[in-house]
Predict the 3D structure of the following.
Amino acid sequence: MTIPSPSSFDAEHEPMSLGDMDPQEFRRYGYQAVDWIADYLTNIRGYPVLSQVAPGEIQQLLPQTAPHAPESMQDILADFDTIIMPGITHWNAPGFLAYYSMSGSGPGIIGEMLSNALNVNAMLWRTSPAATELEQVTVDWLRQMLGLPAPLFGFINDTASSGILVALAAAREAQSDLAIHEQGMAGRTELPRLCLYTSQEAHSSVDKAAIVLGIGQENVRKIATDDDLRLDPVILEQTIQQDIAAGYRPFAVIATIGTTSTSSIDPIPPLVTICQKYNLWLHVDASYGGAAAIDPEMRWVLAGCEQADSLIINPHKWVFTQADCSILYTRKPELIKAAFSLVPEFLRSTDQHDESIPNLMEYGIALGRRFRALKLWMVLRYFGQDGLAARIREHRRLAQLLRQWMAEDPEVEIMAPTLFSLVCFRLHPQNIDDENTLNMFNETFMNRINANGHFFLSHTKIDGKLTLRIAIGNIHTNEEDIQQLWGEIQRKKTEVKHW
Amino acid sequence: MTIPSPSSFDAEHEPMSLGDMDPQEFRRYGYQAVDWIADYLTNIRGYPVLSQVAPGEIQQLLPQTAPHAPESMQDILADFDTIIMPGITHWNAPGFLAYYSMSGSGPGIIGEMLSNALNVNAMLWRTSPAATELEQVTVDWLRQMLGLPAPLFGFINDTASSGILVALAAAREAQSDLAIHEQGMAGRTELPRLCLYTSQEAHSSVDKAAIVLGIGQENVRKIATDDDLRLDPVILEQTIQQDIAAGYRPFAVIATIGTTSTSSIDPIPPLVTICQKYNLWLHVDASYGGAAAIDPEMRWVLAGCEQADSLIINPHKWVFTQADCSILYTRKPELIKAAFSLVPEFLRSTDQHDESIPNLMEYGIALGRRFRALKLWMVLRYFGQDGLAARIREHRRLAQLLRQWMAEDPEVEIMAPTLFSLVCFRLHPQNIDDENTLNMFNETFMNRINANGHFFLSHTKIDGKLTLRIAIGNIHTNEEDIQQLWGEIQRKKTEVKHW
């Protein structure tokens, strides 16, 4: 390892012309990017929703060798259009109905433009007071919109997967007699085995968090669900009692409002009672479904959540805010801080600020925190609660409309309740009885719709039955899109039947 | 819990005028935002670097009640200027010399604008093939620029803190005989105690990862450093041997290239030898320092890293790319995948794609993944390796220039080597001998500089001595800024001396 001596620098040498892109050049290409975006939003229905490229096709069009000399922004933007765009799956298209659609919006784009120009790190209050304070205010605005009681501490994470990990780390921290924070868990013969509970329908992020935290995937008890795919509280309590009898220490329950598969809703009030009785942390994953409560008609979906220890809602799912924006609310911020706060010397402020305002880096894994509240602030104000509620209500109306059409078609089987804006169904032609054949039929049907480019659907399995999901939630999706989808469903159904 | 019946929807009702901001309106406010950004970048030297607001001041200017009715974008942007801007600490200002400066650039802003308009989730290859493939290509371009040998798998995380957690989860997974993934660690009497090693100068994210993973903070062995604050390999090996003798199982070593406090460099080649001998995972945290290797003159800083198991470099630190953009490289992607891969039914593709192209959600905690490669691609092409290297070299030249001036001032004590572009120093007037008084003197001096608004410095402690840090790395910082800083240092020094 040879360290060049400082004398190899010519300190007197004239500095080269360096720095950033010239502001005038930025203005020119910035306008061009705005025009591109405005055109994209205008023509969004013209793109195939699911990208039709073959694996490796984009890579082959890109140079494999890193660029040495600077290139012009004009060339880069041209390549964006010709090389990158064909490889985009258009989450922003009204025909994107797969997974849960994740909808950004105009004010969110503008919020992120400004946030990117500032490029602040909201790790400490002082490293951008407005970023921390605006985050606290916007998160509280959303709390009000959802009808949750104050005070409720909240902050923005990248994803619900990170948020669940944070919540369960706090739940583990709450077992303070075990000193896991300091001593860890491996090889400590005095520790009880830990376990947590969720439903068979819970998101895989629960397993992932349990694996990362060293709880182990086998210690995630997947509680059976009722006919509507809701966690069964009676079976939950029986399982907890069995675990306690077997020497385990149960420490958390994760319930879901709007499961990923079918958007079912776990019964929160009885789960609250059980968690209080056995001293368990109750985390509610309302990443998708929670947003519905912005519409006062839908407040009931969060019933009981005011007593949960933590709750996640993702504005980047159904609040028309660009990813990433996932909010973790908690009634026990002190336990999250206990789990994550480590303030090294280089981040200590010598001018101690008001303790009532948090340093948000102390509430999670990431030290660096983007100024994500800016886009959320712009979205919440631009649409207002009234505008957001009207859009959410419209998506639910469209889902019910589609469901009505399906109910009238004897070849369509509706597979789950539609509590939000997700419709779960499968085709069931009268001449097919065999479940395997039905699964293949529906898979072929889905792949044909997806290959056609106007719509992108995804699937799940319910009791082994391949079930198609239509998740309405994109801000651009309107009644005409749903009518066209229904026409496409009918055409492809006929096609596959005669195949 | 009352679920309204679907009949409460009037499916025949005319839909309201909903949807997103009209594209023409977006164009108007998009232009306005571009103009604002261009002006901001032009006038960046006119803002106080460290925000001067009092705690709670921004919150008090914001309505505490959530907005019900929609508001105009014009009003929102006006409030951004008058309410939010005074609360911004300008990470983008050339006078931001605290922590490690984190520098975005024009092409990065444009990349993020387009990424935000697309708002894709790059969780699976199919959910945007271009996002996954461009990520693989750009990460490989950077590998080439750094002079690291192929093949080397890499992907983008939000922060190095998340990346270290991922790397150490893989290191824990490598202890496959322990079945931690499945069974966890608590209450398993057959498990050995686990421990890992890093230097006293390592970043707090190592402790945080160990806490989250259930290893425990006490099982992070902080190895002593030599006079240049580098991890001492001899003490490391002795400690490993003692731990093994005491029944521990060592499983990882974390080395740093460019420590947060003083930018020291741990000696990688001897650490590689030790890790191979004891079968330990070697993770290298080169978040800040690694970028220097883009300049061929500085390739030596990564010597030995080609044999590390994992390595992190943050383009959002010194590669002029907007946050968040932290790259984790690894020679053992299969172990990261083993630690994190959980593919639920709803994310399975029925059209299996080429196995050689990864689904990047399988390599970390977050399921949702923003299209972060786009900004990196634009930055790498716009500046090219030559342009990036020239800027990095210039920052190093400016640091050496400042150091020369300091060396000529008998009242300035240089506190650490300047291997990159960080200068660590303290004032040491000849009439002050007492260490406590010196610490107070330097703290007062730093707070005065920061309060003045032209520059923002941070501090660390070396052997209990309060040490000031000047971290040059912002793309706008030029020789004139450093001259003005030196003038300010002289003026404030005199002021505090006569205080």
In short: Chain A touches chain B through 209 residues (CB under 8 Å). DSSP finds 15 helices and eleven strands in chain A. The CA atoms of residues 300 and 453 of chain A lie 37 Å apart. The domain at 110-380 of chain A is CATH 3.40.640.10 (Aspartate Aminotransferase; domain 2).
